[in-house]
């Protein structure tokens, strides 16, 4: 026998022997639904059946799916297309059917989950990359590997729930034909994404780590914890250390904090169950639970602040937040989290979810305290932050959001020192968010639209100063990531006078920005008032534009405008200006320009100190938009030119009531008559002259 023949024989023997020696996954549940959750469910079903009504609804959904032929199509379509949506619905069907088997013991549910899993096992090894693959991170079942990872996070939980139903041979078959090649695709073939400190990496490592726990493959678990190099440069611990600030703020912003929470918390729970010695929920001063609380705090009326790339429809009722709240409650037993669960009207079908359902049924709920806070940005908390000012004693309370965060990686916008304002359950001073129609195939396959770069990310799309019609940092991510604001003041010790101030250099060459925002309550005003001082230091001559993206119906401007009523032109040629129709323009007031609009039943007046050389421009979004991708929103822009230092001093008042049903209008006129900035002994003050209460002096500490 030749040496080659001996080698091949040895290799064949080793391969067969090693395969035979591989550990077949046990029938024991290793993930988020265990015997404790089953016991809690059965207690609730017997004593408080309404508390688990959603399980009955889940049964009806899954049984309707069971009545239809199994459909596991060859991947073909991009986001929103038939095959994309079918694989998404199959992942939930595998998960939910597994849960129902675990809760009820009825084998029909386990059989359905098994048939689907087996169908995927038969096709997976032969799948090429998705035909509509995204350039950077193509998947197999889906157009991007992110969706593949999400599929596995849900699917392995379904598998874990039916392991006791499967024979050892069936468990081994699914392991070798589906889960092993799937894990290899995500972690080895997709190592760059798997090790990336980014939400795509979080989903991938959570999928691999949870699969490792369920199938009892420690190598996969260790990769998920430490990265493929096993040195901690990637993996779950590195993600926890680098993506969150000490206050639990996720660097990409609230929208992606919500999205990334699910893999963080479900894998965290799996780690806590299987490796309690790691004390994962105590890591970094309990950063995971902090992140859940912070995500809740980054909302108004249940909806997330739409800063950076964000879709405004997302709220606390999303599945990610349901899992997050339930797991947080299972750890903290904080009854205020139950009020969020009641708002969600849902719970996750896991141990933590049944704990929440039991606590709500027992009447343990307390209100969540939405208070004024600042959350720092940067993994060490030194890269600016987000100030959230609230006045909860008011009916339909308001909230001022002052954003002075770092860039937020690729999903960040070029909008240093910007702000939003909410009142009466509405967004009053708004942020566009992202230009995207998620999973609507007709709109660029559900991708971010070209207008996300040409409009939504540009500085003029935000409520901040734009210099010489150019976006902050020239619209370059690599430049923007090197700079971040420095917080100068944050003080909410007096609920009637809350203040934050921050500065940044490098937004434009030779220009420094400092913005101070004050949220005050005063007997002179019917509702809280926002004071805004934006200071610019420069030795050169510049054009300064300060846009206000308002939400509501134009009521009054105290200076005449020349309307472009027969023909409109774009306001500019680039940097977002090309998307703004110049609807009207005119000279500003020589002392104080005032603009009033109406939204629902309240009036809002923006007062800003101006000179007769300044200009006011009314714009509407929609120019150079041949595919009608952009919303037709309006703004008013204050334009000033000058040499050397400059400042904008403004105020926003809420006032009055408009009762259209009874045709009654009250307090349609605002209080402020003058605004001045004074400096004495190095201390700055904003002096406000009001109609009924005289002069008010507000010192900037």
Task: Describe this entry's structure for a reader.
This protein is α+β, with helices and mostly antiparallel strands and 701 residues long. It folds into 3 domains: 52-210, Glycosyltransferase; 244-363, no CATH class; 374-700, Beta-galactosidase, Chain A, domain 5. It has an 8-stranded antiparallel beta sheet with strand order 9-10-11-12-21-18-17-14, with no helix packed on it. It has a 6-stranded antiparallel beta sheet with strand order 8-13-20-19-16-15, with no helix packed on it. A 5-stranded antiparallel beta sheet has the order 3-4-5-6-7, with no helix packed on it. Strand 25 and strand 26 form a beta hairpin. Helix 9 runs parallel beside helix 12. The longest helix has 23 residues, at 82-104. The protein starts with a helix and ends with a strand. One of its GO terms (molecular function) is lyase activity.
Question: Roughly what percent helix?
Answer: 25-40%
Query: What is the total number of structural domains?
Result: 3
Biggest sheet strand order reads 9-10-11-12-21-18-17-14
Beta-strand share of residues: 15-25%
CATH first level of the largest domain: which class?
A: Mainly Beta
Which of globular, elongated, flat, extended, rod-shaped describes the shape?
elongated
Distance between the termini: 90 Å
What's the count of strands? 26
Q: Report the average pLDDT across residues.
A: 93
Oligomer: single chain
CATH topology annotation of the largest domain: Beta-galactosidase, Chain A, domain 5
CATH architecture of the largest domain: Distorted Sandwich
> Number of helical segments?
18
Outline the low-pLDDT stretches.
1-21
**SSE-based structural type:** alpha+beta
| Largest sheet: number of strands, sense, barrel closure | 8 strands, antiparallel
Computed over alpha carbons, the radius of gyration is 28 Å
Protein name: Alginate lyase
Domain Alginate lyase: 50-293
Signal peptide: 1-20
Subcellular location: Periplasm
């Amino acid at each position: 026998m030749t040496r080659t023949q001996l080698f091949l024989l040895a290799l064949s023997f080793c391969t067969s022997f090693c395969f035979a020696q591989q550990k077949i996954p046990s029938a024991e549940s290793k993930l988020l639904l265990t015997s404790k959750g089953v016991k809690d469910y059965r207690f609730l079903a017997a004593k408080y059946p309404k508390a688990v009504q959603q399980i009955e609804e889940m049964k009806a959904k899954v049984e309707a799916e069971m009545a239809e032929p199994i459909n596991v199509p060859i991947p073909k379509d991009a986001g929103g297309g038939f095959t994309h949506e079918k694989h998404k619905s199959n992942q939930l069907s595998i998960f939910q059917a597994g849960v129902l088997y675990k809760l009820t013991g009825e084998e029909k549910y386990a059989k359905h989950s098994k048939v689907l899993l087996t169908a995927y096992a038969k096709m997976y090894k032969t799948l090429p990359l998705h035909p509509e693959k995204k350039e950077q991170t193509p998947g197999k079942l889906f157009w991007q590997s992110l969706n593949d990872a999400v599929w596995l996070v849900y699917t392995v939980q379904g598998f874990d729930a039916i392991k006791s139903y499967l024979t050892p041979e069936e468990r081994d078959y699914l392991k070798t034909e589906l889960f092993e090649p799937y894990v290899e695709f995500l972690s080895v073939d997709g190592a760059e994404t798997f090790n990336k400190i980014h939400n795509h990496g979080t989903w991938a490592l959570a999928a691999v780590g949870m699969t490792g726990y369920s199938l009892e493959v420690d190598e996969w678990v260790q990769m998920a914890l430490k990265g493929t190099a096993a040195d901690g440069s990637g993996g779950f611990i590195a993600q926890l250390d680098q993506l969150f600030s000490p206050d639990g703020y996720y660097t990409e912003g609230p929208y992606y904090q919500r999205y990334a929470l699910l893999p963080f918390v479900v894998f965290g729970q799996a780690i806590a169950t299987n490796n309690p010695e790691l004390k994962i929920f105590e890591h970094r001063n309990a950063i995971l639970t902090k992140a859940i609380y912070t995500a809740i705090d980054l909302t108004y009326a249940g909806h997330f602040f739409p800063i950076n790339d964000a879709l405004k429809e997302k709220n606390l009722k999303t599945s990610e937040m349901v899992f997050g709240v339930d797991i947080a409650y299972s750890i903290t037993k904080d009854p205020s989290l139950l009020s969020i669960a009641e708002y969600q009207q849902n719970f996750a079908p896991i141990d933590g979810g049944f704990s929440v359902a039991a606590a709500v049924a027992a009447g343990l709920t307390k209100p969540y305290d939405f208070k004024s806070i600042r959350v720092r940005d940067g993994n060490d908390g030194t890269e600016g932050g987000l100030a959230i000012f609230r006045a909860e004693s008011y009916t339909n309370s308001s909230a001022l959001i002052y954003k002075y965060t770092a860039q937020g990686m690729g999903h960040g916008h070029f909008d240093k020192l910007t702000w939003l304002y909410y009142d009466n359950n509405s967004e009053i001073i708004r942020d566009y968010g992202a230009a995207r129609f998620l999973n609507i195939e007709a709109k660029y396959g559900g991708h971010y639209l070209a207008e996300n770069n040409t409009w939504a990310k540009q500085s003029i799309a935000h409520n901040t100063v734009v210099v010489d019609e150019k976006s902050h940092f020239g619209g370059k991510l690599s430049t923007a990531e090197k700079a971040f604001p420095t917080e100068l003041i944050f003080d909410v010790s007096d609920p009637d006078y809350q203040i934050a101030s921050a500065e940044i250099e490098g937004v434009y060459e030779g220009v420094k920005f400092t913005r101070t925002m004050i949220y005050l309550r005063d007997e002179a005003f019917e509702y809280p008032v926002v004071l805004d001082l934006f200071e610019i230091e420069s030795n050169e001559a510049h054009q300064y534009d300060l846009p206000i993206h308002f939400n509501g119906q134009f009521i009054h401007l105290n200076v005449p405008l020349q309307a472009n009523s027969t023909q409109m032109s774009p306001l500019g040629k680039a940097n977002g200006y090309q998307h703004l129709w110049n609807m009207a323009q005119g000279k500003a007031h020589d002392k104080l320009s005032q603009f009033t609009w109406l939204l629902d039943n309240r009036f809002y007046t923006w007062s800003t100190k101006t000179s007769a050389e300044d200009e006011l421009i009314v714009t509407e979004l929609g120019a150079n938009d041949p595919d009608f991708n952009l919303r037709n929103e309006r703004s008013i822009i204050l334009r000033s030119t000058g040499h050397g230092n400059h400042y904008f001093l403004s105020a926003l008042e809420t006032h009055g009531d408009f009762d259209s049903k009874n045709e009654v209008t009250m307090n349609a006129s605002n209080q402020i008559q003058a605004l001045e900035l004074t400096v004495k002994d190095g201390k700055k003050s904003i002096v406000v002259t009001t109609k009924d209460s005289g002069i008010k002096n507000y010192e900037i500490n």
